[in-house]
């Protein structure tokens, strides 16, 4: 089967000329490697598209409530740090955008959420410093410079070497896992998920599960695969908490100065006496 050029061009760009010929033109649906690759690409771009909006409900929920109660600041700080490192590592390694593109969108949305958490806590100066620091750190990790050597070869240098960046990427595994712990503890302590978005939590779990498959299929990198496997486990815990504490509200602390006893009884007696008069 021949597709029109405006459909063939993006299809070839996504699954490659070989798999396009095998699956589309020859209808060879026994070509298991190409089928697995096509599924991986479809999932990958689906995750990237989902990543573009995954935290939007969380942002809207915080803005509407004008509060970030129940949303852990430390969780978002650690998660954003891991995202910045992961985004830089994948970009520098030249991996396909379908295997990490959502990290870019999640990073941007995390920065917005961090700003909102600090803003509604009255810490605007801290918000500016933290957001600027993340942007500066990311630019250092990504920045490379090319120059021509005496023998005519092009040499690429970077402020942060690829070896150091690989070590940083390895640290994102514990960082990502630790980033989930404060939120899990916060949920357990409050027996509520507060302003945490159900859409975000469940989509994160589904996305990390799908990322295990795309990484196994397209990326031969044990560091990245290990990170996604463990992240899926912790995202599963958050999803279970969301289901368990559904519609539970965070208990409000008792107001200071509210007392029980003779004083309150006396006040009530006076009100009743007034009514009798």
Textual characterization of the structure:
The chain has one domain. It has 277 residues and is mainly alpha-helical. Helix 4 runs antiparallel to helix 5, helix 5 runs antiparallel to helix 6 and helix 8 packs antiparallel against helix 9. It starts with a helix and ends with a helix. It has ten helices and two strands, in the order ααααααββαααα. The longest helix is centred in the middle third of the chain and has 29 residues. A two-stranded antiparallel ribbon has the order 1-2.
Which geometry do the CA atoms define? globular
H/E topology pattern: HHHHHHEEHHHH
- Profile the largest sheet: 2 strands, antiparallel
- Cα(first) to Cα(last) distance is 95 Å
Count of extended strands? 2
The order of strands across the largest sheet is 1-2
Radius of gyration: 26 Å
Approximately what portion of the residues adopt beta-strand conformation? under 5%
Number of domains: 1
How many helices? The count is 10
Return residue spans where pLDDT drops below 50 for at least 5 consecutive residues: 254-266, 268-277
Subcellular location: Membrane
Membrane topology: Multi-pass membrane protein
Protein name: Mannose-P-dolichol utilization defect 1 protein homolog
GO cellular component, one term: membrane
Write the topology of this structure:
Elements: H1 5-25, H2 32-51, H3 56-65, H4 73-93, H5 101-119, H6 124-142, E1 144-148, E2 154-158, H7 162-190, H8 198-218, H9 222-244, H10 262-276
Antiparallel strand pairs: 1-2
